[in-house]
Specification:
By secondary structure, this protein is α/β, with parallel strands linked by helices. The protein starts with a strand and ends with a helix.
């Protein structure tokens, strides 16, 4: 079984919008219409010691207590005590997914709102940087080289700041919207795509550039907001089929090279041109591709 981490605490924040509620929508859909081979498990919350690997003590304290208020609301929504529980639960889920991936090959967490978060404050609806924390956790668990692959529509400038200077982490960012753009230097690469017909080709090119790099783990930020119907980030011509193909490509690339992969949901927003059903289907395409890659992983291992 492939482990996918989620618990009710993920949606404890009072502020209601897609990022704070989406994991529940996807989890409910997995209950109503299960994907064979998926086991939903509740993770342990991340500890403050773990958070301190990336985040400043003053910021962690602000998120826990709500004081100072401007810092506690720096990610962009009203602070309430549920935000802390939600943030430590869903960040703990990323770390649990990394551990499960290192053992089982493929795992995930229904977490969102990670890649814009900075060491000293939140940004862009992201509270803690679970991608940076997940990569460091993989290194703590014995991985020597980690790939962070971020295909959310927006750039992951927060992740860049969090892991800058760590030569054990390669950071690839395939974006379609300039928000949170940064000047990427090796081992960071940022590719900003402005035409849908170039999207998958650019992804293939990125992956081909590290064809022979021996990664021990991939942390995959599987944002669905490049979808043409998403009001935040969507690029015309990027269809659900293209995104499903993207997911097959990424999971296949990792499993063929025996690179354990831990995925998270990331962006994807409902609106007049993206219904809740469409958004859930988009995120389910990540889980479906992950499960079939996980099966191949087990076959390879015999
Ligand atoms: Zn995004």
């Amino acid at each position: 079984m492939m482990q996918v981490f989620y618990g009710p605490a993920y949606v404890g924040a009072g502020h209601v919008f897609d990022t704070t509620r989406k994991s529940q929508w996807v989890a409910e859909s997995l209950t109503a219409d299960p994907i064979a081979g998926v086991q939903v498990c509740a993770p342990e919350p991340v500890t403050e010691t773990m958070l301190a690997q990336v985040h400043d003590a003053r910021y962690i304290e602000a998120m826990r207590t709500g004081v100072p208020r401007d810092l506690a609301e720096s990610q962009g929504f009203r602070w309430d005590s549920g935000i802390w529980d939600a943030a430590i639960a869903s960040t703990g889920g990323v770390l649990a997914a990394v551990r499960a991936a290192l053992t089982d090959g493929v795992a995930g967490s229904l977490s969102s709102g990670l890649h814009h978060a900075l060491p000293k404050e939140g940004r862009g609806f992201c509270t803690f940087n679970g991608l940076a924390l997940g990569a460091l956790h993989a290194l703590d668990r014995g991985a020597r080289r980690v790939l962070i692959l971020d295909v959310d529509a927006h750039c992951g400038g927060g992740t860049y700041v969090c892991i800058r200077g760590n030569s054990a982490i390669t950071h690839f960012d395939l974006a379609v919207h300039p928000y949170d753009r940064y000047l990427a230097r090796t081992p960071h690469r940022l590719v900003l795509v402005d035409r849908a017909d170039r999207y998958l080709g650019e992804l293939r090119r990125l992956l081909a550039s590290v064809e022979h790099d021996p990664f021990d783990c991939c942390v995959y930020n599987a944002g669905m907001d490049p979808f043409e119907g998403c009001r935040e980030g969507g690029l015309p011509g990027i269809t659900a089929d293209i995104l499903a193909e993207r997911e097959r490509l990424v999971f296949q690339w990792c499993t063929e090279r025996h690179v354990p992969i831990a995925f998270v949901l990331a962006g994807g927003y409902t609106g007049s041109t993206c219904t809740l059903e469409q958004l859930i289907a988009l995120h389910r395409s990540t889980i479906t591709a992950a499960v079939s890659a996980g099966r191949r992983w087990l076959l390879h291992r015999g």
